[in-house]
Amino acid sequence: MPTFKSGAFVQQCFASHPLSLSVQALALPDRVVVMCTSCDMRHRFLVRTFTTRADEVGNPEREAKDDLAQCVAAHPADLRVSTVDVVHDSVKLRCGACSRTYKLTVSAFETYHKDA
Asked: According to the model, what pLDDT value does residue 62 have?
């Protein structure tokens, strides 16, 4: 199966079965791979920025590559996609274990079948 270079596939996947999208891999400095267990598709994001907010309300966003890497290493099954916005080229990930949200500014979306 070919690789589709469009956010439309991840947007449709998220709209159809949002609870099936989980982080499969993080390849720093700029790649995140998300797997959909419902349709066996992989969605790869080329990321420009990784940000998160501190725990206190009103704190500004800060760089979050290291925090996300720690989440992926410690509890990868708890990282889920919580928002996909292809119009604004962004994806949000939510970690159920540490209750942190990560905002990814995406420069390219790619989708391919997991066997490809």
From this structure: 87
- The token pair that represents 93 in the structure block: 């990930």
State the pLDDT at residue 55. Answer: 63
Mean pLDDT of the chain: 90
pTM confidence score: 0.89
* 3-state secondary structure labels for all residues of the chain: CCCECCCHHHHHHHHHCHHHEEEEEEECCCEEEEEECCCCEEEEEEEEEEEEECCCCCCCEEECHHHHHHHHHHCHHHEEEEEEECCCCEEEEEECCCCEEEEEEEEEEEEEECCC
Amino acid at 38: S
Task: Name 62's Cβ contacts closer than 8 Å, sequence gap at least 6.
Answer: 51, 52, 53, 54
